[in-house]
Amino acid sequence: MRETNALAKKAYMYLWSEVVSLRIPPGEAILESDVCKRLNISRTPVREALIQLTRENLVVEDAKYRWVAAPITVKMVREYSQLREAIEGMGARLAAQNGKTVNIAELRNLASLTASALEDGDPNSYFMFNWVFHESVVKASGNQVLSGAYYPVRCYLSRVDCLTYLSDSYPKDALEDRGIHHVLVDAIANEDAEEAERLARVHTRNTEQRMLSLVGSLNFRGIKPLDWVASSGEAGTPD
Predict the structure, then answer these.
(1) Separation between Cα atoms, residue 52 and residue 56, nearest integer Å
(2) Coarse DSSP helix, strand, coil percentages of the chain, rounded to the nearest 5 percent
(3) For the chain, counts of helices (H) and of strands (E)
(4) 204 within 8 A of 153, measured Cβ to Cβ
(5) Alpha-carbon span 87 to 81, nearest angstrom
């Protein structure tokens, strides 16, 4: 059983990286046999990994019952972003209400690591620290249902998050946003629930506008794969 889980994790991390980096573009079929050959493993762990990725909205089954990388559309980005705003806003509010039990030092450290990665021009570290920061704020809510709902939303939007680094306005937009992480942590530390929710919603709304602008102008078949994206999906790997 442990070997099967380890192989499923290996397949998951490989496929997560391929999909998020757009090495497998939106809408492209994923052949189990190709993955098996590439990783030298059997179909069972590959299928388990694909099932896990469907739960995270990165892979879907098309009308021909093929596994394909989930399409990215303006409509879906808007709807997932709206859900992300609601979850992160409520997560920040609840985290502030739990202020005395939240690990504020950890949140401050993540905010600093995110800013440092941006200043150092390290997009892979920036992507992951930024992800972990937002996920940690939601987890600080203490609401496991909220945290469970958040991860697949974040996964779907992760590819567009990555693509914002290719836009002409990056890193200007990211640099302007970096301070809001520290201000949000301050609101949580001060147990100011209304301000924490407001800041989280403003931050996600700003991100949504950048994403929508970018997605509306892209031809994904012409996008160069994001080679800097590492197999960083470990947070969502099967146990």
Answers:
(1) 7
(2) 70, 5, 25
(3) 9, 2
(4) no
(5) 10
SS3 145: helix
Structure tokens at 17: 């990286």
User: How many Cβ atoms are within 10 Å of 56's Cβ, its own excluded?
Assistant: 20
The pTM is what? 0.82
| CA–CA separation, 212 and 126 (whole Å) | 21
Instruction: Summarize pLDDT for 92-132 with one digit per residue, the tens.
Output: 999 999 978 999 999 999 999 988 888 887 877 888 888 89
Residues of each domain in the chain carrying CATH 1.20.120.530? 74-230
Q: What are phi and psi of 67, to 5 degrees?
A: -75, 130
**Interacting residues of 181 by C-beta distance below 8 A, sequence separation 6+:** 110, 111, 114, 115, 133
Contact (Cβ atoms closer than 8 angstroms) between residue 237 and residue 7: no
- Nearest-angstrom CA–CA distance, 157 and 81: 8
Please give the Cα distance from 169 to 199 (Å, whole number): 22
Summarize pLDDT for 36-61 with one digit per residue, the tens: 999 999 999 999 999 999 988 899 98
Best CATH choice for the domain 2-71 from the list 3.40.720.10, 1.20.120.550, 3.50.50.60, 1.10.10.10: 1.10.10.10
Superfamily name and number for 74-230: GntR ligand-binding domain-like (1.20.120.530)
Output phi, psi for 57, to 5 deg: 65, 20
Among 204, 206, 184, residue whose Cα is nearest residue 86 = 204
216: its two tokens: 């509306």
Instruction: Name the DSSP letter for residue 36.
Output: H
